[in-house]
């Protein structure tokens, strides 16, 4: 472009960004003066500001103008009304495990739910009501003295908010279904600031929409879930490091997937290339002090490099899972729908992890992990009510996940293309096996890359979700926050 036009463009961009900053600062001051004494607003530099806006992968971090830490639904309502009125971009963050930048981060007003930390167990109803700011490990620990549990995340540090609002796969999914299938109520601050308890009885449409609809319908401050009895469990992680053992481990995973029908048994296979080396980690779980003979024998008899498998409390198993924050690296999840795990498919998974891992090493790879989650065929039959995710329960697909971390930001786009290639190869393998549905099946939003189309996430539920959206959020307030959006095109007001 000509120099003069270019100078004008730069000047206008500078003006715009400084005006923008000034505007957000003004919004932040308005929020600060409106909040009750129990809540807080943090400015850049404050320890809480940093803590409440940081993510598991630091590539999901942005620098907000301020961080609001509301502790009452009233204060959440005040913040929402102010950002709505001023059309200020904002974010809602729980424990920050989103791997997509902008999904729980913003340069505007960052709302943290971490002030909501209550846990109340109702022994009569066998339900638990807990705050949206908690991580699953804290909920498990609080329930342990009561001898009960809930169906939540499988690693320490994962937030309750994002996992539930996306769907949720847990160690108990084979027994009780998806996490959302066990949710009985949401305490929700609607986009217009109204605080309501949403149940199937009070508002069946909104109840449906919150079960997979992410942050499109407001800010959830509490969840109520069904509990079930929980005693000692058997489980942990076995690490296989010697390539000579991979064939036996892979065959054991295929056999488990094809033959084991005991819903108390579950496993998660992670095939990894890390620090120049291939390795396979298998996490095993049995909901009882000992698994019946036969279920996991093939894994146990194969020589391993390390094992944390033991009879232990559920929370001790969870807290032992190595899932530390990945600070200073880039990260991405790219999930797809996998209906079954044949030996052929699992061999292709190994091949993809190990050959691509070796090839990516000179491109600042930190690790490449391909995660297989062989759930039982009937996990989608435990729901009492319809849910936003998955949009089709007639066929079961497990959430397969490609999980990658790298160091060099200039490689972001290249890695996106590379993991899409891995997905395409593995999907083609499933199609070859006769599963044509994999390219149209529901994709799990919590493992999806930022550009997953709404049709793949919400499919045939999209029209209904958009109808609910029109009613609950006519001003598209939640469109000011990032994440997967279901807003009908005609309603979109802002270009963020
Ligand atoms: C180490 C690790 C282990 C994982 N294990 C599992 C697993 O076992 N099973 C599984 O299903 N998934 C798992 N996941 C994926 C997980 O479900 C998502 O990362 C999820 O988004 C995490 O929720 P969060 O609250 O920590 O994330 P955040 O980044 O805080 O939020 C994610 C999204 O949810 C929205 N959100 C969060 N809280 C609220 C709220 N209260 N109201 C409205 N919107 C809200 C945010 O705006 C954002 O769009 C795992 C992820 C990681 C990194
Ligand atoms: C951070 O903010 C809190 C409350 O807003 C305040 O009490 C504290 O002194 C601040 N700390 C720093 C280091 O600024
Ligand atoms: C538990 O639920 C019962 C039945 O709805 C209710 O009567 C009781 O007040 C609840 N208890 C607590 C501690 O909330
Ligand atoms: C990395 O290594 C692969 C194969 O070893 C090679 O094809 C590729 O060109 C290398 N890339 C870079 C950036 O050096």
From TrEMBL:
Entries under InterPro entries matching the protein: BBE (IPR012951), FAD-bd_PCMH (IPR016166), FAD-bd_PCMH-like_sf (IPR036318), FAD-bd_PCMH_sub1 (IPR016167), FAD-bd_PCMH_sub2 (IPR016169), FAD-linked_Oxidoreductase (IPR050416), Oxid_FAD_bind_N (IPR006094)
Similarity section: Belongs to the oxygen-dependent FAD-linked oxidoreductase family.
Signal among keywords: yes
Stretch forming the signal peptide: 1-22
Domain of life: Eukaryota
Domain (FAD-binding PCMH-type): residue spans on this chain: 60-230
Recorded GO MF terms: FAD binding; oxidoreductase activity
Keywords in alphabetical order: FAD, Flavoprotein, Oxidoreductase, Signal
SUPFAM superfamilies in UniProt: FAD-binding/transporter-associated domain-like
Name of the protein in its database record: FAD-binding domain-containing protein
Pfam families registered for this protein in UniProt: BBE (PF08031), FAD_binding_4 (PF01565)
């Amino acid at each position: 472009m000509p120099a003069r036009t270019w100078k004008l463009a730069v000047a206008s961009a500078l003006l715009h960004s400084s005006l923008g900053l000034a505007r957000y600062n003004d919004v932040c001051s308005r929020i600060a003066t409106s909040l009750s004494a129990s809540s807080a607003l943090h400015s850049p530099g404050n320890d809480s500001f940093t803590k409440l806006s940081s993510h598991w992968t630091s590539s999901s971090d942005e620098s907000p103008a301020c961080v609001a830490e509301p502790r009452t639904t009233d204060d959440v309502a005040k913040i929402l009304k102010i950002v709505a009125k001023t059309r200020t971009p904002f974010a809602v963050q729980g424990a920050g495990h989103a791997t997509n930048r902008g999904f729980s981060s913003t340069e505007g007003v960052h709302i943290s739910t971490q002030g909501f930390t209550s846990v109340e167990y109702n022994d009569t109803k066998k339900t638990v009501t807990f705050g949206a700011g908690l991580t699953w490990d804290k909920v498990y620990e609080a329930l342990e003295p009561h001898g009960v549990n809930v169906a939540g995340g499988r690693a320490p540090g994962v937030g309750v908010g994002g996992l539930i609002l996306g769907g949720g796969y847990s160690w108990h999914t084979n027994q009780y279904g998806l996490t959302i299938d066990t949710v009985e109520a949401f305490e929700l601050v609607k986009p217009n600031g109204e605080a309501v308890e949403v149940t199937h009885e009070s508002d069946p449409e909104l109840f449906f929409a919150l079960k997979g609809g992410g942050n499109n319908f407001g800010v959830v401050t509490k969840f109520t879930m069904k509990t079930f009895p929980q005693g000692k469990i058997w489980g942990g992680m076995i690490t296989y490091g010697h390539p000579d053992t991979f064939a036996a481990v892979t065959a054991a995973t295929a056999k488990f997937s094809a033959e084991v029908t005991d819903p108390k048994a579950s496993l998660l296979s992670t095939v990894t290339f890390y620090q120049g080396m291939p390795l396979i980690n298998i996490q095993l779980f049995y909901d009882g002090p000992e698994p019946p003979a036969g279920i996991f024998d093939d894994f146990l008899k194969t020589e391993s490099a390390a094992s944390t498998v033991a009879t232990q409390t559920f929370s001790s198993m969870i807290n032992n899972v190595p899932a530390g924050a990945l600070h200073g690296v880039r990260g991405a999840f790219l999930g797809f729908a996998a209906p079954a795990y044949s030996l052929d498919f699992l061999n292709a998974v190994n091949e993809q992890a190990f050959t691509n891992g070796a090839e990516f090493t000179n491109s600042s790879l930190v690790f490449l992990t391909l995660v297989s989650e062989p759930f039982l065929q009937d996990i989608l039959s435990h729901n009492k009510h319809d849910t936003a995710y998955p949009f089709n329960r007639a066929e079961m697909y497990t959430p397969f996940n490609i999980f990658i971390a790298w160091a060099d930001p200039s490689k972001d786009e290249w890695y996106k293309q590379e993991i899409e290639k891995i997905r395409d190869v593995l999907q083609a393998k499933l199609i070859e096996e006769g599963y044509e549905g994999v390219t149209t099946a529901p994709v799990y939003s919590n493992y999806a890359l930022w550009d997953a189309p709404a049709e793949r996430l919400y499919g045939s539920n999209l029209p209904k979700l958009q109808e609910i959206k029109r009613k609950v959020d006519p001003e598209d307030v939640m469109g000011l926050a990032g994440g997967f959006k279901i807003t009908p095109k005609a309603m979109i007001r802002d270009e963020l």
